[in-house]
Every structure is written in C-alpha cells, then in structure tokens.
Amino acid sequence: MTADMIDSPDPSEFTVSTDITVNWGDMDALGHVNHSVFATWMETARMMYFSKVGMMEIYENSNIGPILARIEVDYKFPIVYPDVVKVRTSVSRIGNSSFDMVYQISSLGKEGEVAAIGKVVGVLVDYNTGKPIPIPDELRNSIIDFEGGKISD
What we know:
Layout: H1 3-7, E1 16-21, H2 35-53, H3 55-62, E2 64-75, E3 84-94, E4 98-107, E5 113-126, E6 131-132, H4 137-146
Antiparallel strand pairs: 1-3, 2-5, 3-4, 4-5, 5-6
C-alpha cells in the first residue's frame, strides 16, 4: 500500500476498521487530542487485526507474538471532543520476522476527512527467549489471505 492509498479515504484499501468515540479526557491542555491517544487508537485496530488473522491464538498457545519496533504518525489536523474517529489498518509488508502495518485515522465529525496517517513495524518474537523468530507459514498465509493477496515482501 502506498502513501497515496493511505491518504485516500477509500475504506476498501484497508482490511480492518473501527469507530472510536473521542472522550473529553483524550484532550490535552492545548485543547486537542493528545498524540499518545492516536497511538492507542492504532493499537486498538492492530489488536482487532491480530485477532482476525489468528496471531493472538498463536501467542496464547506458544508464547510467540508481536512486539512493536517502530511507530510513525503524520498529523493532518487536530481532533477535538466531541468527535468519532474511524481507524483503518492493513498489513502492507511481510518480511522474514517483521511486518509493516499502515493506518488511516479519519474524523467522522469532519465528514471522514483524514486527520492522521501512520505506520508501525512489528516483529514476531518468542517471548520465552526475547528473540525475533521467522513468521510461521500458517500466520503468513493467514495475513496474505486476509489482505486478498495484495502484500509485498
């Protein structure tokens, strides 16, 4: 998925989306939603994604799971209370032990205008050893199938 696709409000580019209500407490002293809340919204969508592709089941059965290695967010405009945001995500790349996920956060109060785009790099880790491990074929295939085959290596 390219940056143009992330900026595009077309929901068909993403495989998971969820609406999240902005809470008054999400805002900081400057009167807009704090940057850390955007990261939490991305995390919420990421965990939904992981559940859908079986990653959390793998973690529960083997103590092998994802860890966040990098997070990037580009903000287009501030979000303020009251609002509802739509958070969309997809896996855009799968490597040997790492994967990239892209995000689009839109303000439903501003007719779906994109407020932020993001990207994370995750690494599959054996939590018993703390070391990265290759993504098992079963999980890789589940992600590729869920994404409709549109993932780059």
